[in-house]
Amino acid sequence: MNKLGFIGGGKMASAILNGVIKSKWLSSENIYVSDKNEDALAILKSKHNINITTDNAEVVKNCNIILFAVKPFVIREIMEEVKAYITQNHLVLSIAAGISTKTIEETIGDVAVVRIMPNTPALVNAGMSAICGGKNAKKEHKQLALEIFKNVGEVIETEEKYIDIITAISGSGPAFYYYIIDEIAKAGKKLGMDYDTCLKLSAQTALGSAKMIMQSGISPEQLIVNVTTPGGCTAVGNEVLKDNKVSDIMYETIEKTAKKAFELGKK
Question: What residues contact residue 252 under an 8 Å CB cut-off, 6+ apart?
């Protein structure tokens, strides 16, 4: 029987935990969470009846799957704290942005490591996660990671060389979409409608458009053609986007975000 231990009990850990329990992939008694925030632990305990502790080592001692759900700037310190208790029987998972499987292996030793880049829509079970395995991660290790993160949305397997790009596209991507949705709503407000109505229109349109891409099998380019009547309303809007070089802006946004993700791993 697998036992899953979370080191870190923040929002992302809570989302993953909720998905795992809701899907019945693992029962509450086989899940441990450690965090320095006792109030956050108490909330998780009351909601899910899981095992909680402020001692990270206790999680490692009691679980065979360890998920580092902490920020990049603290993971090295925590790995040093618990590495004496990690054995080759452990599977180590990490969602710390920018921290490579090699860095984790060099810190905690010869163990199977799978790195995951999730995103915050996991909080509403609509996440997009990507996984990649370290040098010791076998097929069954990556399969376990896939099974865990399928509980909070879509998940793909990738090569680690692409993780920084994925961080920019889907890890940071929600913030970029929030910005666009908000700006469209604000434009509607400037034209005379109330903001809340404009926001609902914008957000639902974004949701529906995403579903069209995911479910129709039609390329975004063709979907644009399908919506656009030559000389019509959409055509005028498309021209504004092209004239203002929005494609260049989006490229720069993803490029600089990916570069920052790469730099995080070097600190």
Answer: none
The domain boundary, picked from 129, 159, 189, lies at: 159
Least confident of 57-61, 70-74, 219-223: 70-74
Q: CA–CA separation, 252 vs 133, rounded Å?
A: 29
Q: Do 191 and 237 belong together in one domain? A: yes
Give the SS3 label for residue 129: strand
Distance CA 139, CA 142 (A): 5
168 part of a folded domain:
no
Residue 249, domain extent: 173-264
Question: Using H for helix, E for strand and C for coil, what is the string for 38-54?
Answer: HHHHHHHHHHHCCEEEC
pLDDT in tens, 164-189: 999 999 999 999 999 999 999 999 99
CA separation, residue 100 to residues 106, 114, 157, 173, 240 (Å): 10, 9, 15, 20, 41
The answer to whether residue 167 sits within a structural domain is no
- 130-161 per-position pLDDT tens digit: 999 999 999 999 999 999 999 999 999 999 99
Helix axes 101-108, 72-82, angle to 10 degrees: 30
